[in-house]
Amino acid sequence: SSGINAEYGVGEAFRNLVHRNVVRFSYVVSASYVLADAASKARLQAKQEDGKPVRTFTDVLIWQGLASVAIPGFTINRVCWGVGKLVNNLTPATKSAIVTGSGLLAIPFIIKPIDRGVDVLMDEAVRPYALKHVSF
Fold first, then answer.
1. What is the CA radius of gyration of the chain?
2. List of residues 6+ apart from 125 with CB closer than 8 A
3. What confidence tens digit (pLDDT) does each residue in 51-80 have?
């Protein structure tokens, strides 16, 4: 499960209320998590007799990059953008509150579908074709 995408989504949801560097920092936090998770799982694989640390690192990096950073960030960004267009005639303070609230409320609803979608993508396309030749 990609629980970190909740943190990333929070950064996107607050985009209209905080300085852009705060949102950028959420990218750094998410990317750091993705790299640390991939490295940790690869290290465990390296300790096994038949382990494949490079394949594991690459697999986890792709899965987490999609499920924890790219897709949730894009999705929350678009939810906030769309809601912002719908409530454009409200006062700026009310609009900001509604846009941010909608982004935050979307997070619990998008996590599992994104995870499942990335699982299917990895199982049907990435692992059998892109990673099949990575044997170490």
1. 18
2. none
3. 789 999 999 999 999 998 899 989 999 999
CA distance 131 to 111: 25
Residues comprising the chain, all counted = 136
Structure tokens at 99: 């846009």
For residue 124, give the DSSP letter: I
The residue with tokens 């170490």 is 136
The three-state secondary structure class of 9 is helix
Hey, what amino acid is at 105? L
Q: What would the two tokens of residue 63 be?
A: 């899965």
Tokens at residue 50, please?
A: 């038949």
Q: In whole angstroms, what is the distance from residue 27 CA to residue 71 CA?
A: 12
Decide: pTM greater than 0.70.
yes
The amino acid present at 87, given as its one-letter code, is V
